[in-house]
Recover the amino acids of this structure.
């Protein structure tokens, strides 16, 4: 074990020791920790928004306040309001029921797992710390957090603020690059949460397997937006493009491509163009339009467009008339439609994570669903329309982490719904009560009748007629 791993292991062991010595935290302790997170976000929201803007280059303050500050506070307040109820033991019937009549009891208690490791990404560098942290702390755990090195100012500020609000054996932030991330993932946490890409997710899972650490993975994928033949194109296009341009499409839940009836593709493109023009009358140097996180990602997006162009796609940049094309120095990549997209194009093979929207034509809804099912199960499926039979067909014939109908992304804003993937888009779920349960161990507890009863004696040797009669009653159709 190298020095870095030893340092992390030392922090982890100190937190585990504190967990053992203090025992299960009651509701007041958990609520106090949630309150401290809320206070941190309220008191330092402007500093956090400034840091995110500096890390991105351009990021709308209102968008950051919505997606990172308000969304985090919403998750924390929801946990605070419900944690006492979530903590209540769950009574279950005894087996056989006769034992319950004599005073035996069975119940399930949600026990904290211990110390939870959290590896957070750069795209929502505050929310993807405090969103999972709401469930982690509500469940009574302690937390070690590794934020992204791609948002260094935000990560450093989070470290400073959390160190001021929490004791080092409660919540701790560890900053650094990929070497720190690798050493962090190798620690013997009681649970590990990772949000990010599938390639790194596989590495995290492999590292956690060595210590048998349970893992929650949120990995994204190519989320389809299916526009039905009866959908209102103006509404559908506006909502899809809002999701595609929020944070410049750097969202695991952003619609990755649109499936549109063949005879409505051009009309959809026109509606999308109008929607973007209404949101961004000025695109270049706009304070409302986020920059791509770094030059490497900007170049990757540009390569997707050129590859699609070379393979016969129609490229439609949705930028106001007179505005210059994408400039690497600002990293503000214009919203771009790729019409006539085909499977061999790179943009249809990889998660885009940017403001590029391929549009795929279909003739029957069955073909659109078949297109979705020919790929890995995505983190979300979006459907637009009013035909209930078609809606139900899409729901019953596709597999995804979540679904939003007649909009995109909004299912994650519902505090009562779990958030997570399925298959290659991830596994495990957090948010609301599901987050509390994800970071808890549901411990089974049975209290036997304290006095000796005849039926209990019959379960022990020497076996006689009584147990044979009991077993005969149990083993039958």
């Amino acid at each position: 074990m190298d020095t870095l791993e030893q340092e992390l292991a030392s922090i982890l062991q100190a937190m585990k020791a504190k967990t053992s010595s203090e025992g299960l935290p009651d509701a007041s302790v958990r609520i106090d920790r949630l309150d401290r997170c809320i206070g941190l976000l309220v008191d330092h929201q402007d500093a956090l928004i400034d840091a995110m803007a500096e890390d991105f280059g351009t990021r709308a303050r209102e968008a950051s306040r919505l997606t990172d500050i308000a969304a985090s506070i919403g998750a924390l307040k929801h946990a605070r309001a419900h944690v006492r109820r979530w903590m209540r033991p769950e009574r279950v019937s005894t087996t056989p029921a006769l034992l319950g009549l004599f005073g035996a009891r069975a119940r399930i208690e949600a026990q904290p797992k211990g110390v939870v490791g959290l590896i957070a990404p750069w795209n929502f560098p505050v929310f993807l710390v405090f969103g999972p942290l709401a469930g982690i702390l509500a469940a009574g755990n302690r937390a070690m957090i590794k934020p992204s090195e791609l948002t260094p100012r935000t990560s450093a500020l989070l470290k400073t603020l959390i160190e001021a609000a929490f004791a080092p054996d409660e919540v701790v932030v560890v900053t650094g690059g990929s070497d720190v991330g690798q050493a962090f993932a190798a620690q013997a946490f009681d649970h590990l949460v990772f949000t990010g890409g599938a390639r790194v997710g596989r590495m995290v899972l492999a590292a956690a397997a060595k210590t048998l650490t349970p893992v929650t993975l949120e990995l994204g994928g190519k989320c389809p937006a299916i526009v039905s033949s009866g959908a209102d194109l103006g509404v559908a296009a506006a909502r899809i493009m809002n999701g595609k341009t929020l944070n410049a499409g750097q969202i695991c839940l952003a619609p990755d491509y649109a499936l549109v009836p063949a005879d409505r593709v051009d009309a959809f493109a026109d509606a999308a163009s109008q929607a973007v023009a209404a949101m961004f009358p000025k695109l270049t140097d706009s304070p409302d339009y986020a920059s791509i996180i770094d030059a490497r990602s900007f170049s990757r997006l540009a390569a997707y467009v050129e590859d699609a162009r070379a393979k016969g796609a129609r490229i439609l940049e949705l930028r106001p008339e007179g505005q210059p094309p994408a400039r690497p120095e600002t990293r503000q990549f214009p919203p771009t439609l790729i019409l006539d997209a085909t499977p061999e194009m790179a943009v249809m093979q990889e998660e885009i994570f940017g403001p590029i929207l391929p549009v795929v034509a279909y003739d029957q809804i069955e073909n659109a669903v078949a297109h979705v099912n020919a790929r890995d199960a995505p983190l979300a499926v979006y459907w637009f329309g009013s035909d209930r039979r078609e809606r139900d067909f899409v729901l019953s014939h596709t597999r995804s982490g979540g679904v939003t109908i007649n909009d995109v992304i909004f299912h994650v804003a519902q505090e009562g719904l779990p958030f997570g993937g399925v298959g290659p888009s991830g596994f495990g779920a957090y948010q609301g009560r599901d987050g509390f349960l994800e970071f808890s161990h549901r411990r089974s507890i049975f209290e036997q009748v304290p006095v000796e009863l005849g039926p209990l004696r019959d379960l022990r040797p020497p076996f006689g007629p009584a147990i044979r009669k009991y077993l005969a009653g149990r083993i039958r159709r």
